[in-house]
Amino acid sequence: MPAPFPADWSRALVVAAHPDDIEYGVAAAVAVWTAAGKEVRYLLATRGEAGIAGMPPGEAGPLREEEERRSAAVVGVSEVDFLYHRDGLLVEGPPLRADLAAAIRRHRPDLVVTLHGGDTWTGPDVTPAAWNSADHRALSRSVLDAVADAGNEWIFPDLPGEPWSGVQYVAVQTIGDPPHAVDVTDGVEPAVASLTEHRRYLEVLSPDVPVEDQARQVVDQATLTEDGDRRVGFRLFWG
């Protein structure tokens, strides 16, 4: 049984690569946190402009950004920040780390949350494996480094904002058997409603399945455990 998620924090920054990433499970935890009075903000590395087949990036980017803002509002998040890196071309390294560190300084969180960045979406012994997105892999590792960068005045000396070393924890969404978990029983319905706001994206992704059905299937898959509980799992790192 995973340990309960820490509660000794006030402000979280949830960092993802694309609009809709947070809604694939983590939004259920966000709904629980905001209902408990925690302040949660979102940071997106890209606008997801390459994510809708048949729709040019110049049209898809603004649409997906607006869908993300509406989606965030459903689970109590009013601040959504975008870094505007190119969708599909995130690269782990100093430029991405610097932008993430600057954002951490702006938002000054106690908790930083990011999504699963492992090579695959399945366990190491499962074949064939589902390969994880290059953007997801690059972002997760860069977030962990950027938390330290945000507090160091010398790594990126031209970075705006005062150094911020107030991050207590970094929580990385974990697939499989997580060391820590959030009970999201009360967050499931808000999470479904939140993912439903990505309507245009989901309509193209699975045109034969109603958006509401897609959203429920995804949230169920992300939160329903073998023992019937509703949890979202994380691995914690010190800030």
TrEMBL record:
Q: Name one GO molecular function term.
A: hydrolase activity, acting on carbon-nitrogen (but not peptide) bonds, in linear amides
The record ties this protein, via InterPro entries, to:
GlcNAc_PI_deacetylase-related, LmbE-like_dom_sf
Pfam families according to UniProt:
PIG-L
Q: Which UniProt keywords apply?
A: Zinc
Q: What are the recorded Gene Ontology BP terms? A: glycoside metabolic process
| The protein's name in its UniProt record | N-acetylglucosaminyl deacetylase, LmbE family
Natural source organism: Klenkia soli
